[in-house]
Amino acid sequence: MNLDTAKTTLLAPYDLETGKLERVFGTLAAHKVDYADLYFQYSRYEGWSLEEGIVKSGSFNIEQGVGVRAVSGEKTAFAYSDEISFDALQDAAKATRAIASAGQSKKTRAGKRSMPVALYRALDPVASLDSSQKVTLLERLERKCRALDPRITQVIASLGGEYEVVLIARADGTLAADVRPLVRLSVQVIAEANGRRESGSGGGGGRTDYAHFTDEVLDEYARHAVSQALVNLEARPAPAGTMTVVLGPGWPGVLLHEAVGHGLEGDFNRKGSSAFSGRLGQRVASPGVTVVDDGTLPGRRGWQGTDRHHVRPAHSTLGRGTRNAPSGWAKET
Questions:
Q1: At 91, is the secondary structure helix, strand, or coil?
Q2: Of 20-34, 102-116, 123-137, 239-253, where does mean pLDDT reach its minimum?
Q3: Strand partners, 39
Q4: Category of 114 on φ-ψ map: left (φ > 0), alpha (ψ -120 to 50) or beta
């Protein structure tokens, strides 16, 4: 179904049947590249923001385009166009000739299908509620926050939705597609008491539509934001100095990403430019460190159906094998 949706959205309106894609890959193959793919994308975004009981801002955007990637040895060329058309694709394909010298000429055929694991439904969040219902959703969240404690003096809530259709065509003939919904609801509250003002925040979302935000979910977001603000009202300044820090699961993963994440990416390791290159089976961190980056959790923001190798466990020793690694070890899956 995703592939049919992608073809209807990204190929049919621009008269780009499979035969024309083969001609584009033929142009790329004539430049003797080692690998090539086409990436088509269509996205609709919207955002709503409520403050002081009224909607202060709203936005809606539509974006679309196509990119061409060609790889020849260690060199990679990219070309893209906001216009989806056969002529634009051919121009982009011809632009890759600058890296052609190290590649090999190959025949291509577009048509094989790649069926990703479905961990979310092909929903359109933007169309799941009308404008008045989206405003009402924000107003409900504001009322829930204010009802929890009279010290809440201000509530700022924002709602966002995204509908994205992606089609990837590879030079080996594989076609893969994904329809990606994404929603997010955030709330920030201000609490005041005894001349002190503090804030708290809450929210969440995932790859679903606005039906995800039930009364129970809104209650959870409101309680989290208000509780955080009230705790901050009573909080004392933290002592300074070097201390042990314990990080829980969730957002602290961003710290790990910035510290070592890029070094674990495949292209840097393939080129040998990563600090982890050639260190499979060697310890690279403290024995007590065990981190798993799992992109297969249903409905979560980080998963994308067309990324078939998204699972990347990262522990403190690099290695290959099963995911049942001892503490301090890393395995590839």
A1: helix
A2: 102-116
A3: 67, 168
A4: beta
Token readout for 292 is 């798993």
Q: Residues with Cβ < 8 Å from 298, sequence gap 6 or more?
A: 119, 120
What's the pTM value of the predicted model, to 2 decimals?
0.77
Which structure tokens are listed for 49? 């923001």
Tell me the residue type at 45.
Answer: Y
**How many CB atoms lie under 10 A from the CB of residue 261?**
16
Length of the chain: 333
Task: Compute CA distances 102 → 32, 68, 73, 79, 268, whole Å.
Answer: 7, 18, 6, 19, 20
Q: d(Cα 195, Cα 181) in Å, to the nearest integer? A: 43
pLDDT in tens, 152-188: 999 999 999 999 999 999 988 888 899 999 999 999 9
Q: Mind listing the domains of the chain with CATH numbers?
A: 2-234 (3.30.2290.10), 243-333 (no CATH)
In the chain, the percentage of residues whose pLDDT exceeds 90 is 46
